[in-house]
């Protein structure tokens, strides 16, 4: 049986995957933004081993969460599932939008600071194809709130997650690191009218978390629902661009690439 941490697992696909894995006998550690959401998550997935808390829009809480996770011991897999989609700029203490903090900076920081698992998954989206591959003003420090576009920021962040998977896969040959587009499914984030099949998404999560199937033996790849491998936006394969992204996050967070 595997031990798996899933960030952003108090609701949505993260919770569905946690429930599936726990039902199948795996040890699952949930993550929630605060104590109330942690209680809700544990009630929804009572077979989970435990819940860690941390607001991933806060750099200090993200770093503390990494410490808390390491105190729990080794993990077979970590799924960086937490993410924001729509909303206002919501400036963080570092002066960047909350969406960029949660979707881009937090998975980078957690990947660097948490002890390496056997398998690592970064959540992306088909919308990453609309992301800005030039990496200009990645964290909206120049454009600021006046020019804020949550749609553009989301697309960019999902491209960043594909690039993180490829960058960490190069750095860590002993870890299987991949990215996953779960599809557009009916969750709080996706909306009630989303046409995708959530069970097809769960299949891909589970495959990558457990290291099962032909696709799970690969690393640095991009997967879609139904365990299907696909090709990401071409710039995601640019190693120099991957390194620029890592250094931008390192400069903002004070956490050097592992």
UniProtKB/TrEMBL annotation:
InterPro entries: NAD(P)-bd_dom_sf, SDR_fam. GO terms for molecular function: oxidoreductase activity. SUPFAM superfamilies: NAD(P)-binding Rossmann-fold domains. Keywords: Oxidoreductase. The keyword Oxidoreductase applies. Belongs to the short-chain dehydrogenases/reductases (SDR) family. This is Short chain dehydrogenase. It comes from Lophiotrema nucula.
């Amino acid at each position: 049986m595997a031990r798996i941490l899933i960030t952003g697992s108090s609701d949505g696909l993260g919770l569905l995957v946690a429930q599936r894995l726990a039902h199948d006998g795996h040890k699952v550690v949930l993550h929630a933004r605060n104590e109330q959401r942690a209680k809700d998550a544990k009630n929804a997935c009572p077979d989970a081993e435990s819940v860690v808390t941390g607001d991933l829009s806060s750099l200090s809480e993200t770093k503390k969460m990494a410490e808390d996770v390491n105190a729990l011991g080794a993990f077979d897999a970590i799924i960086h599932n937490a993410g924001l989609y729509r909303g206002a700029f919501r400036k963080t203490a570092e002066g960047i939008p909350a969406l960029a903090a949660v979707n881009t900076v937090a998975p980078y920081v957690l990947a660097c600071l948490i002890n390496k698992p056997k398998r690592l998954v970064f959540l992306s989206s088909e919308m990453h194809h609309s992301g800005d591959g030039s990496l200009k003003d990645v964290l909206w420090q120049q454009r600021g709130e006046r020019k804020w576009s949550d749609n553009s920021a989301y697309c960019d962040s999902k491209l960043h997650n594909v690039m993180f998977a490829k960058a960490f896969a190069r750095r860590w040959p002993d870890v299987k690191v991949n990215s996953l587009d779960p599809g557009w499914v009916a969750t709080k984030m996706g909306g009630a009218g989303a046409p995708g099949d959530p069970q097809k998404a769960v299949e891909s999560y589970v495959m990558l978390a457990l290291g099962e199937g032909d696709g799970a033996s690969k690393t640095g790849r991009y997967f879609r629902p139904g365990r299907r491998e696909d090709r990401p936006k071409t710039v995601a394969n640019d190693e120099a661009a991957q390194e620029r992204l890592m250094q931008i996050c390192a400069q903002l967070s004070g956490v050097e690439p592992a």
